[in-house]
Write a structure and sequence with these properties.
With about 325 residues, the protein is an alpha+beta fold. It has nine helices and twelve strands. Among the domains are: about 5-70, no CATH class; about 85-175; about 265-325, Roll (Nucleotide Exchange Factor Grpe, Chain A, domain 2), CATH 2.30.22. The structure holds flavin-adenine dinucleotide.
């Protein structure tokens, strides 16, 4: 019987142990932490919340591994088609950036593409470390701006300090043709989006113009509707036979009430400022008259004014007091 020890209970350790078990070997896993799972460990706190050390997202496209992981979680998982962005100096760039240069400053795109063409038109230099691989794959400009900086942040070391055997399919390496085709496709998509946006804004403008025209046309509709009963009353008064002066007067008073009701509904207010201080915004002085009243007091209203929604529809025509000459 083979005695095998697996060091570490992370994905790699458990993966190795699982494979060994399937081959009839029961390994012993040694783990230095007090919990198992390595970076995939989860912890439940006293209130029942489950905290994951890292997100449990699998990016694998390998159906065997997909099936294996699904089985481990009793097929309770969500499949997501995510659209990833890279946040870089205030820009949001679609992932992987090497295929979506379009969000970058124009001069930088040209520099990156020229670099890319240069490294791909020269014989591939010997690759001693990850930095060499990055420069040979993407050109120096892109390598230094993106993956080499990310490497310092994520792996806490520089790319020239890292080997390349871990890379596998992790870093996408587009060909020049793919980059150019993608750029062409993006230009086409942007052009289409621009055409759609233009058509939409044209439609909105046309709709707004029609709305404004209709608003002008029918603005008076409701107000005019309120005036119709007033007209009916006036007509009725004229057709009344043998009406006494009193009856006519009462009819006119009722009709005036109807009109006042319509004015109220549409916020038309009377301006009748006798005794108030002259207000040039609402009153129009026809003349000044010497008076015992305080100067600038409205003495008479020759014609009432009106406000529509507090805006002057017609100023009140008034006479205003001035001090008596001695
Ligand atoms: C924040 C974060 C988020 C991540 N998110 C994802 C993700 O969403 N999807 C994804 O696919 N990958 C993700 N990864 C990467 C993924 O977690 C790792 O690639 C994977 O867990 C590595 O597994 P591993 O077994 O090699 O290492 P680890 O998970 O690190 O396990 C190593 C284990 O070995 C133990 N150990 C180390 N030295 C010894 C020793 N001398 N003796 C005994 N035991 C030892 C450690 O304690 C640990 O338990 C993430 C990584 C991080 C850091």
């Amino acid at each position: 019987m083979n005695k095998i020890i697996v060091v570490g209970s992370g994905m790699a350790g458990f993966g190795a142990a699982h494979r060994l078990k399937n081959n009839g070997i029961r390994p012993v896993i040694y783990e230095r932490s007090s919990y198992y799972g390595g970076h995939t460990a989860s912890f439940r706190d006293s209130s029942g919340f489950l905290f994951d050390l890292g997100p449990h997202i699998s990016f694998t496209k390998d159906p065997r591994i997909q099936e294996l992981l699904a089985r481990f979680v009793d097929n309770k998982y969500d499949a997501l088609q995510v659209k990833l962005d890279n946040y870089w100096r205030g820009l949001r760039l679609t992932h992987p950036v090497q295929l979506h240069l379009n969000g970058l400053p124009k001069d930088l795109i040209v520099e990156i593409l020229m670099d890319f063409v240069k490294v791909h038109s020269e014989p591939t230099p010997p690759i001693a470390n990850y930095e060499d691989w990055l420069i040979a794959s993407y050109g120096r400009k892109f390598a230094e701006l993106f993956p080499m900086q990310y490497t310092r942040k994520y792996h806490l070391t520089t790319a020239n300090n890292m080997s390349t055997e871990w890379l596998g399919p992790r870093m996408y390496r587009p060909s020049l043709e793919e980059m150019l085709r993608r750029a062409e496709l993006q230009a086409q998509e942007h052009h289409d989006a621009w055409l759609r946006a233009k058509a939409e804004s044209d439609n909105i403008r046309k709709r707004a113009q029609a709305d404004i025209a209709n608003a002008h046309k029918y603005a008076l509709e409701t107000f005019a509707g309120q005036l119709l009963p007033v007209r009916d009353s006036l007509e009725a008064a004229l057709t009344a036979d043998n009406a006494t002066l009193d009856a006519l007067r009462r009819g006119v008073e009722l009709t005036l009430k109807q009109l006042d009701g319509a004015f109220d509904k549409f916020a038309i207010k009377e301006v009748n400022p006798v005794g108030e201080k002259f207000d040039p915004h609402k009153h129009q002085a026809m003349t000044t008259v010497e008076s015992d009243k305080a100067p600038n007091t409205v003495l008479h209203v020759l014609q009432k004014g009106y406000l529509l929604n507090d805006r002057v529809l017609r100023p009140a025509l008034v006479t205003v007091a001035k001090a008596k000459e001695r």
